[in-house]
Design brief:
The chain is an all-alpha fold. It is 70% helix and 0% strand. It contains two helices and no strands. Helix 1 runs antiparallel to helix 2. The longest helix has 37 residues. InterPro entries: Claudin (IPR006187), PMP22/EMP/MP20/Claudin (IPR004031). It is found in: Cell junction, Tight junction; Cell membrane. This is Claudin-19 isoform X1.
Length: 92
């Protein structure tokens, strides 16, 4: 097993993006629950409540975008290494 800091940069970056995505998704769940019409938190101003709900949706989209970037980048790196002529045949 490799130490954490000796793995390639694209794997470290993908890990970081996935951690950011999970944290952002968790925050989006909390913000979206607060912004729902069925909750009583911030019930005084419906405009503010709808803005909170929209910001939760934006956080969900950003979390999905981070995941999409991470998975796509990792898959691209795998396919580049697979089709690299310098890669030994038994390592593919």
């Amino acid at each position: 097993m490799q130490p954490l800091l000796s793995v390639p940069v694209h794997i470290q970056t993908c890990r970081a993006l996935m951690v950011v995505s999970v944290l952002m998704g968790f925050l989006a769940i909390i913000v979206s629950v607060v912004g729902m019409k069925c909750t009583k938190v911030g019930d005084n101003n419906p405009v503010t409540k709808s803005r909170i709900a929209v910001s939760g949706g934006v956080l969900f989209l950003l979390a999905g975008l981070c995941t999409l970037i991470s998975v796509s980048w990792y898959a691209t790196q795998v396919s580049h290494q697979f089709f690299n002529p310098n890669t030994p045949v038994n390592a593919r």
